[in-house]
Amino acid sequence: xxxxxxxxxxxxxxxxxxxxxxxxxxxxxxxxxxxxxxxxxxxxxxxxxxxxxxxxxxxxxxxxxxxxxxxxxxxxxxxxxxxxxxxxxxxxxxxxxxxxxxxxxxxxxxxxxxxxxxxxxxxxxxxxxxxxxxxxxxxxxxxxxxxxxxxxxxxxxxxxxxxxxxxxxxxxxxxxxxxxxxxxxxxxxxxxxxxxxxxxxxxxxxxxxxxxxxxxxxxxxxxxxxxxxxxxxxxxxxxxxxxxxxxxxxxxxxxxxxxxxxxxxxxxxxxxxxxxxxxxxxxxxxxxxxxxxxxxxxxxxxxxxxxxxxxxxxxxxxxxxxxxxxxxxxxxxxxxxxxxxxxxxxx
Length: 347
Description:
The protein starts with a strand and ends in a 22-residue tail after the last helix.
């Protein structure tokens, strides 16, 4: 059975969307995009028993035309000339519109604060999603916020290790839900911990967050009268409480968090929409058999059966002769008394 696939090749991981749901591989990619796509599709074909009938992948809106053409050529060399390209903000807005059912001429600002950059795009629904205003990209992402936290903790304890870096990244993610996180620090001499509060974390990252929200304000102002009805928050860094508070305080526009894998889901919807409908198989009606074509069931003729049939014929003729010679009797109505009540015998 044919199926469609949507791919979002992010910097922190690759998200795959099919009709069965969304799966994210949380790892940085080291392959070229075309090779990454080919490997993913090979895995899907092995899992489902056949290759997908339609594939769509997202790309940053800021990619130049030359870069897109190079990726397309690389995909052709990998045997995937049929892959569709969908801009990432459009894909995220399509997934949001599929559930929210935006009214015609609604405007949505896609605030994609990902691992390596923040992309802000304003889209207006006019049958399809069209650009409104001037999109902007800021080269600040979640990896930069990780580095700020690591620098702060290292300055406190005076030591650095790969384990400490991983702990700092986990602490940054936990501070979205907890007011304080304790980071373990293990050295040759002792094992101790460093406390990092949410207020401390927000003070560390506030300058970077303000730069990103400044860009969002510029994009909204560039749209003129097409002020967004909603701001769609996409990407892991967009979930940081300080980001949401800063947007609400400055723009006074409702902000909604996109579901996980929104861009990949939108790409899947685009692939599904462009899949041709299966041709209907015409029904074939068999003609009813004619009367003369119907098989006639004949009884086998035996001496006993022949004698029986002769007796029936002779008997029928004699009964008819008696009925014709019988005197006619006038039939009158007879009124019968109503039946009585039946009483069952006692046992």
